[in-house]
From TrEMBL:
This is Uncharacterized protein. It comes from the Eukaryota. GO terms for cellular component: cytosol; nucleus; perinuclear region of cytoplasm. One of its GO terms (molecular function) is GTPase activator activity.
Length: 284
């Protein structure tokens, strides 16, 4: 069957104790040789030691055809290090569509978060039902700010409190300044997190546009756009050249605005009244 098998689904398998090492060697060898294999489901099969985990992970790295790996509830007993396995996959240089490491008792994701920050070729990462805490959330949030490839992240049913989720929200949308918004992650959808530009199925450009427009819309509520833009862009002669571009961007960004945002005409009118328009006409 080698070369023909596209998926290996192994759930709740109990290997006999005396033969467990040999069983893992056989499975790893088969995975490594089967270059038609695209997906591995390894669910509720408790990996007995880091040696067996390393053997299995190495076979998945060697077989470059595999793009979808789901290893759920298999690293959370006997001290087997699921974070090390996840990090090995992310730092292998291999492209993956999906890595699912849910229900593995993951805790202390320093190395995995550092790997995520290096922009691995990974589209979806599932880390549900682990023991991730606020510190882990902060590390992941910092990694997201540097990652432009990951498209979906799930962190449901962990030990993350509102403090940790706020760190994650800020990585997705930080309204403290235009530069802060620009530096946010516009690529990744984080599941079950209510924050601007985090709707499933949006393109990175749509996410960025919606966030920038939301910032302008929020400032418009108290008429402070001109004050903020003066602080962020300056008030010298070079800034005047940006005025037409900013006004054009209002219309551009509004195509992806949230339903509760101000109208583009209203924001444009505010800026025409308050921001460098007299100076603009003096120049011309």
């Amino acid at each position: 069957m080698e070369g023909r098998l596209k998926s290996i689904d192994m759930c709740r398998v109990r290997f006999p104790g005396p033969d467990v090492v040999e069983c893992y060697e056989i499975i790893a060898a088969s995975i490594g040789r089967n270059h038609g294999l695209e997906r591995l489901l390894w669910i509720s099969n408790q990996i007995p030691s880091d040696d067996q985990a390393d053997l299995l992970i190495e076979s998945l790295i060697v077989n470059r055809a595999i793009k979808d790996i789901r290893m759920e509830n298999c690293f959370n007993q006997d001290g087997v290090n699921g974070c090390r396995a996840l990090t090995s996959l992310m730092t292998s240089g291999r492209p993956f569509q999906e890595l699912d490491f849910s229900d593995n008792g993951l805790l202390g994701v320093d190395d995995a978060a550092a790997a995520l920050a290096t922009n691995p070729q990974l589209e979806k990462l599932f880390m549900n039902e682990n023991q991730l805490n606020d510190r882990d959330a902060e590390l992941i949030a910092e990694a997201l700010k540097r990652n432009t490839i990951l498209q979906e992240l799930t962190l449901d049913d962990n030990s993350i409190t509102s403090t940790g989720f706020q760190k994650l929200r800020t990585a997705i949308y930080d309204p403290s300044s235009l530069n802060a918004v620009e530096s946010c992650n516009h690529t990744c959808y984080v599941d079950h997190m209510d924050v601007e530009g985090n709707d499933y199925g949006m393109t990175p450009r749509q996410r960025r546009n919606q966030k920038l427009y939301k910032l302008l819309s929020t400032r418009h509520l108290d008429g402070s756009n001109a004050r903020h833009l003066n602080g962020e862009l300056g008030e010298d002669k070079y800034t005047i050249k940006l005025v037409p571009k900013v006004l054009h961007c209002i219309k551009l960004y509004s195509s992806d605005k949230a339903t509760d945002s101000s109208s583009p005409l209203s924001i444009t009118f505010e800026l025409i009244k308050t921001w460098m328009i007299p100076e603009l006409f003096e120049v011309h």
